[in-house]
DNA sequence: AGGAAATATTTCTGTACAGGCATATGGGTG
DNA sequence: CACCCATATGCCTGTACAGAAATATTTCCT
Protein backbone atom coordinates (compact mmCIF):
# COMPACT_ATOMS: atom_id res chain seq x y z
CA UNK A 1 0.00 0.00 0.00
CA UNK A 2 1.35 3.38 -0.98
CA UNK A 3 1.87 6.16 1.53
CA UNK A 4 -0.84 8.08 -0.27
CA UNK A 5 -3.35 5.30 0.24
CA UNK A 6 -2.23 4.72 3.82
CA UNK A 7 -2.99 8.31 4.63
CA UNK A 8 -6.24 8.40 2.68
CA UNK A 9 -8.06 6.52 5.46
CA UNK A 10 -9.39 8.85 8.17
CA UNK A 11 -8.85 6.43 11.04
CA UNK A 12 -5.25 5.98 9.99
CA UNK A 13 -4.71 9.72 9.92
CA UNK A 14 -6.23 9.86 13.39
CA UNK A 15 -3.77 7.26 14.64
CA UNK A 16 -0.86 9.25 13.25
CA UNK A 17 -2.25 12.42 14.80
CA UNK A 18 -2.48 10.71 18.18
CA UNK A 19 1.05 9.39 17.90
CA UNK A 20 2.30 12.92 17.40
CA UNK A 21 1.68 13.36 21.11
CA UNK A 22 4.20 10.63 21.77
CA UNK A 23 4.55 6.89 21.86
CA UNK A 24 1.42 5.01 22.73
CA UNK A 25 0.38 1.40 23.24
CA UNK A 26 -2.14 -0.23 20.95
CA UNK A 27 -4.64 -0.37 23.80
CA UNK A 28 -4.25 3.31 24.51
CA UNK A 29 -4.99 4.00 20.88
CA UNK A 30 -8.08 1.81 21.05
CA UNK A 31 -9.30 3.73 24.11
CA UNK A 32 -8.81 7.04 22.35
CA UNK A 33 -10.51 6.07 19.11
CA UNK A 34 -14.04 5.22 18.22
CA UNK A 35 -13.14 1.91 16.63
CA UNK A 36 -12.94 -1.72 17.71
CA UNK A 37 -9.68 -3.21 18.90
CA UNK A 38 -9.30 -5.42 15.82
CA UNK A 39 -10.04 -2.42 13.67
CA UNK A 40 -7.26 -0.40 15.24
CA UNK A 41 -4.92 -3.36 15.04
CA UNK A 42 -5.57 -3.77 11.38
CA UNK A 43 -4.89 -0.12 10.66
CA UNK A 44 -1.71 -0.34 12.68
CA UNK A 45 -0.60 -3.18 10.47
CA UNK A 46 -1.22 -1.08 7.39
CA UNK A 47 0.72 1.82 8.88
CA UNK A 48 3.57 -0.51 9.82
CA UNK A 49 3.76 -1.80 6.27
CA UNK A 50 3.79 1.75 4.98
CA UNK A 51 6.69 2.49 7.33
CA UNK A 52 4.73 5.19 9.10
CA UNK A 53 4.87 3.65 12.57
CA UNK A 54 7.35 1.49 14.43
CA UNK A 55 6.55 -1.01 17.17
CA UNK A 56 8.46 -1.74 20.31
CA UNK A 57 7.47 -4.73 22.42
CA UNK A 58 7.28 -3.79 26.07
CA UNK A 59 5.97 -6.57 28.23
CA UNK A 60 2.70 -7.58 26.78
CA UNK A 61 2.18 -4.13 25.37
CA UNK A 62 3.08 -3.10 21.88
CA UNK A 63 4.20 0.48 22.00
CA UNK A 64 3.79 2.35 18.75
CA UNK A 65 5.83 5.32 17.66
CA UNK A 66 5.41 7.69 14.78
CA UNK A 67 7.81 7.29 11.87
CA UNK A 68 7.06 10.34 9.74
CA UNK A 69 9.77 9.98 7.08
CA UNK A 70 7.65 8.30 4.40
CA UNK A 71 5.36 11.31 4.44
CA UNK A 72 8.12 13.10 2.65
CA UNK A 73 7.03 11.38 -0.54
CA UNK A 74 3.75 13.27 -0.31
CA UNK A 75 5.46 16.51 0.56
CA UNK A 76 7.74 16.11 -2.44
CA UNK A 77 4.84 15.41 -4.74
CA UNK A 78 3.00 18.46 -3.45
CA UNK A 79 5.95 20.80 -3.77
CA UNK A 80 5.41 21.90 -7.40
CA UNK A 81 1.74 22.53 -6.66
CA UNK A 82 2.56 24.73 -3.70
CA UNK A 83 4.70 26.85 -5.93
CA UNK A 84 1.89 26.98 -8.44
CA UNK A 85 -0.70 28.30 -6.11
CA UNK A 86 1.61 30.66 -4.31
CA UNK A 87 2.50 32.20 -7.64
CA UNK A 88 -1.21 32.51 -8.30
CA UNK A 89 -1.71 34.23 -4.97
CA UNK A 90 1.16 36.52 -5.82
CA UNK A 91 -0.62 37.37 -9.02
CA UNK A 92 -3.79 38.04 -7.06
CA UNK A 93 -1.93 40.27 -4.63
CA UNK A 94 -0.39 42.08 -7.53
CA UNK A 95 -3.77 42.50 -9.13
CA UNK A 96 -5.30 43.85 -5.93
CA UNK A 97 -2.43 46.23 -5.45
CA UNK A 98 -3.05 47.65 -8.89
CA UNK A 99 -6.86 47.63 -8.64
CA UNK A 100 -7.83 48.47 -5.07
CA UNK B 1 -14.53 11.83 -2.05
CA UNK B 2 -11.90 13.51 0.07
CA UNK B 3 -8.90 15.25 -1.40
CA UNK B 4 -6.76 12.58 0.24
CA UNK B 5 -8.61 9.81 -1.56
CA UNK B 6 -8.68 11.72 -4.81
CA UNK B 7 -4.93 11.95 -4.76
CA UNK B 8 -4.40 8.39 -3.61
CA UNK B 9 -5.10 7.05 -7.08
CA UNK B 10 -1.96 7.01 -9.28
CA UNK B 11 -3.76 7.81 -12.53
CA UNK B 12 -5.38 10.81 -10.89
CA UNK B 13 -2.01 12.06 -9.70
CA UNK B 14 -0.74 11.62 -13.23
CA UNK B 15 -3.58 13.74 -14.59
CA UNK B 16 -2.78 16.50 -12.13
CA UNK B 17 0.90 16.27 -13.02
CA UNK B 18 0.06 16.64 -16.70
CA UNK B 19 -2.18 19.60 -16.04
CA UNK B 20 0.70 21.36 -14.34
CA UNK B 21 2.07 21.90 -17.84
CA UNK B 22 -1.04 23.88 -18.66
CA UNK B 23 -4.63 23.50 -19.69
CA UNK B 24 -5.38 20.39 -21.68
CA UNK B 25 -8.39 18.83 -23.37
CA UNK B 26 -9.72 15.50 -22.20
CA UNK B 27 -8.61 13.91 -25.45
CA UNK B 28 -5.11 15.23 -25.04
CA UNK B 29 -4.99 13.67 -21.62
CA UNK B 30 -6.20 10.37 -23.02
CA UNK B 31 -3.43 10.45 -25.63
CA UNK B 32 -0.82 11.11 -22.99
CA UNK B 33 -1.95 8.41 -20.57
CA UNK B 34 -2.00 4.65 -20.72
CA UNK B 35 -5.69 4.40 -19.95
CA UNK B 36 -8.92 4.17 -21.92
CA UNK B 37 -10.94 7.27 -22.73
CA UNK B 38 -13.77 6.32 -20.37
CA UNK B 39 -11.23 5.63 -17.66
CA UNK B 40 -9.71 9.07 -17.98
CA UNK B 41 -13.17 10.61 -18.10
CA UNK B 42 -14.16 8.96 -14.84
CA UNK B 43 -11.05 10.11 -13.09
CA UNK B 44 -11.67 13.61 -14.38
CA UNK B 45 -15.10 13.46 -12.83
CA UNK B 46 -13.62 12.46 -9.49
CA UNK B 47 -11.10 15.28 -9.70
CA UNK B 48 -13.84 17.73 -10.61
CA UNK B 49 -15.86 16.67 -7.58
CA UNK B 50 -12.82 17.09 -5.40
CA UNK B 51 -12.40 20.61 -6.77
CA UNK B 52 -8.96 19.81 -8.13
CA UNK B 53 -9.72 20.57 -11.76
CA UNK B 54 -12.03 22.97 -13.58
CA UNK B 55 -13.59 22.44 -16.98
CA UNK B 56 -14.11 24.96 -19.71
CA UNK B 57 -16.24 23.99 -22.69
CA UNK B 58 -14.56 25.05 -25.91
CA UNK B 59 -16.42 23.85 -28.95
CA UNK B 60 -16.79 20.17 -28.55
CA UNK B 61 -13.68 20.00 -26.45
CA UNK B 62 -13.63 20.07 -22.69
CA UNK B 63 -10.55 21.89 -21.60
CA UNK B 64 -9.36 20.99 -18.14
CA UNK B 65 -7.33 23.21 -15.89
CA UNK B 66 -5.58 22.51 -12.63
CA UNK B 67 -7.21 23.89 -9.50
CA UNK B 68 -4.60 23.21 -6.85
CA UNK B 69 -6.16 24.99 -3.88
CA UNK B 70 -7.81 21.93 -2.28
CA UNK B 71 -4.37 20.38 -1.97
CA UNK B 72 -3.79 22.84 0.78
CA UNK B 73 -5.79 20.60 3.07
CA UNK B 74 -3.11 17.94 2.69
CA UNK B 75 -0.32 20.46 3.11
CA UNK B 76 -1.95 21.71 6.30
CA UNK B 77 -2.32 18.19 7.65
CA UNK B 78 1.30 17.45 6.88
CA UNK B 79 2.64 20.62 8.44
CA UNK B 80 3.01 19.36 12.04
CA UNK B 81 4.76 16.25 10.77
CA UNK B 82 7.25 18.27 8.79
CA UNK B 83 8.13 20.17 11.91
CA UNK B 84 8.41 16.91 13.79
CA UNK B 85 10.89 15.33 11.50
CA UNK B 86 12.89 18.45 10.94
CA UNK B 87 13.18 18.95 14.68
CA UNK B 88 14.34 15.36 15.04
CA UNK B 89 16.79 15.97 12.22
CA UNK B 90 15.29 12.99 10.48
CA UNK B 91 15.28 15.10 7.41
CA UNK B 92 19.01 15.63 7.59
CA UNK B 93 19.56 11.94 8.23
CA UNK B 94 17.41 11.09 5.28
CA UNK B 95 19.27 13.51 3.11
CA UNK B 96 22.65 12.15 4.17
CA UNK B 97 21.50 8.60 3.66
CA UNK B 98 20.60 9.39 0.07
CA UNK B 99 23.61 11.61 -0.62
CA UNK B 100 26.58 10.17 1.27
C1' DA C 1 1.33 -24.64 35.31
C1' DG C 2 -2.96 -21.95 34.88
C1' DG C 3 -5.32 -17.86 34.10
C1' DA C 4 -5.80 -13.21 32.70
C1' DA C 5 -4.38 -9.26 29.91
C1' DA C 6 -2.89 -7.21 25.44
C1' DT C 7 -2.74 -7.64 20.82
C1' DA C 8 -2.94 -9.91 16.41
C1' DT C 9 -5.31 -12.79 13.08
C1' DT C 10 -9.10 -15.09 10.84
C1' DT C 11 -13.61 -15.15 8.90
C1' DC C 12 -17.50 -13.05 7.11
C1' DT C 13 -20.22 -9.33 4.94
C1' DG C 14 -21.04 -5.26 2.62
C1' DT C 15 -19.47 -1.66 -0.13
C1' DA C 16 -16.57 1.13 -2.97
C1' DC C 17 -14.21 1.51 -6.87
C1' DA C 18 -11.05 0.76 -10.96
C1' DG C 19 -11.03 -0.86 -15.66
C1' DG C 20 -13.00 -2.32 -20.12
C1' DC C 21 -16.64 -2.20 -23.54
C1' DA C 22 -20.71 -0.50 -25.35
C1' DT C 23 -23.69 3.30 -25.69
C1' DA C 24 -25.63 7.92 -24.99
C1' DT C 25 -25.16 12.94 -25.37
C1' DG C 26 -24.01 17.26 -27.22
C1' DG C 27 -21.78 20.37 -30.31
C1' DG C 28 -19.80 21.26 -35.23
C1' DT C 29 -19.93 20.77 -40.06
C1' DG C 30 -21.39 19.54 -44.62
C1' DC D 1 -31.06 17.40 -41.39
C1' DA D 2 -27.53 13.82 -41.29
C1' DC D 3 -23.17 12.68 -39.81
C1' DC D 4 -18.89 12.90 -37.24
C1' DC D 5 -16.09 14.15 -33.40
C1' DA D 6 -15.21 14.64 -28.38
C1' DT D 7 -16.62 13.34 -24.12
C1' DA D 8 -19.58 11.43 -20.64
C1' DT D 9 -22.34 7.70 -18.72
C1' DG D 10 -24.09 2.77 -17.94
C1' DC D 11 -23.24 -1.76 -17.26
C1' DC D 12 -20.43 -5.52 -15.86
C1' DT D 13 -16.69 -7.88 -13.45
C1' DG D 14 -13.07 -8.41 -10.35
C1' DT D 15 -10.73 -6.87 -6.46
C1' DA D 16 -9.56 -4.33 -2.44
C1' DC D 17 -10.71 -3.07 1.80
C1' DA D 18 -13.23 -1.44 6.13
C1' DG D 19 -15.74 -3.04 10.07
C1' DA D 20 -17.52 -6.50 13.47
C1' DA D 21 -17.29 -10.72 16.01
C1' DA D 22 -14.93 -14.67 17.27
C1' DT D 23 -10.63 -16.86 17.96
C1' DA D 24 -5.63 -17.44 18.27
C1' DT D 25 -1.19 -15.96 20.21
C1' DT D 26 2.00 -14.13 23.32
C1' DT D 27 3.45 -12.61 27.75
C1' DC D 28 2.89 -11.62 32.44
C1' DC D 29 1.55 -12.94 37.15
C1' DT D 30 0.61 -15.88 41.03
From TrEMBL, chains A, B:
Cross-referenced Pfam families: HTH_5
Leader sequence residues: none
Keyword annotations: DNA-binding, Transcription, Transcription regulation
InterPro entries, sorted: ArsR-like_HTH, HTH_ArsR_DNA-bd_dom, HTH_MetalResp_TranReg, WH-like_DNA-bd_sf, WH_DNA-bd_sf
Cross-referenced SMART domains: HTH_ARSR
Transmembrane segments: none
HTH arsR-type domain sequence ranges: 1-86
A single GO molecular function term of this UniProt record: DNA binding
NCBIfam families the UniProt entry points to: HTH_metalloreg
Name this protein carries in UniProt: Transcriptional regulator
Species name: Nesterenkonia cremea
Amino acid sequence: MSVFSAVAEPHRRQILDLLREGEMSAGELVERMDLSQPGVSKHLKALREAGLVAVRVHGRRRVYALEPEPLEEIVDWLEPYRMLWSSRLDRLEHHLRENP
